[in-house]
Amino acid sequence: MSYLEEYYLSYDEERRLLSQHGQVEYLTTMKYVEECLSGIDAPSILEIGAGTGRYSVTLAKRGLRVTAVELIDHNIEVLKSKLDGSEPIEVYKGNALDLSVLPDASFDLTMLLGPMYHLYTREDKLKALSEAVRVTKPGGRILVAYCMNEPTVISYVFGLNHLIEVTEKNMLTPDWHCISEPKDLFELVRTEEIASLDAEFPVERLKLVATDGATNYLKELIDGMDRATFNKWMEYHFTVCERQDLIGASHHTLDILRKK
Asked: Which segments of the chain are extended strands (E)?
């Protein structure tokens, strides 16, 4: 069993997204999904790395045509358990690096909301992006989520007092970039690395969004908010989530691309 399979067998990703602090990332992502789908009649949607279906199932239950590709058997089982058979969704076991089962230029919206968290080489990241671009229609949108470097340095290395550990294990470069391996589960990037990946493909960036912004620095505070205060937090977050001077400090980002 891989590190990734072990992680998703024991970690409740669904519970995280349903927590009040986790809702910020979910609600922000859905806001931009809906923006990308606006004006398209009967859109075709692909989610690569669909996980337990938080996005795919939600969209399919709205009657939208969804294709969900997921690598981990446990996640596929959870995803399918949410379906009653009436939803227009197809679910495949597959890898973001090889979508050969899917034809070129098939989808109006392609979502890559998890795989880039777990790809550790530039070659693999480019392959995953290449496949996502290939299966998207010209003019279609591609949403790519990333985990960012600086929040981990701030929150994990210093905030949780792991400085000695990561230093002894040579997990930091001289310029404080985290060095990840599959056993570490998550690959961390900076905004310039995302731009460098995009530059390899016939795509135009429409937006780079901080999907949780400052939220994960304040988890306990966010989870303790009453609904009215939380709604105000979301109002603030939506006001600043596209500000490029804040992007790198967000734990998660969403790169919104248009295929030329």
From this structure: 44-48, 65-70, 89-93, 107-112, 136-148, 188-189, 203-210, 252-259
- Residue 204: CB atoms within 10 A of its CB come to 11
Specify whether the CB–CB gap between 252 and 148 falls below 8 A. yes
Please report, for the domain that includes residue 13, its CATH number. 3.40.50.150
pTM: 0.93
Backbone angles phi, psi at 44, to 5 degrees: -100, 130
* 122 membership: H or E segment, kind and range: helix 122-135
CA distance 243 to 90: 36
Examine residue 192 and state whether it is found in any structural domain, yes or no.
yes
CA pair distance 208, 191, nearest whole angstrom? 9
Give bridge partners of residue 259 from the DSSP assignment. Answer: 203
Tell me the three state secondary structure of residue 214: coil
Helix (H, G, I), strand (E, B) or coil at 44: strand
Q: What is the pLDDT of residues 132-156, one digit of tens each?
A: 999 999 999 999 999 999 999 999 9
Domain count, the chain: 1
* Segment 45-94, tens digit of pLDDT: 999 999 999 999 999 999 999 999 999 999 999 999 999 999 999 999 99
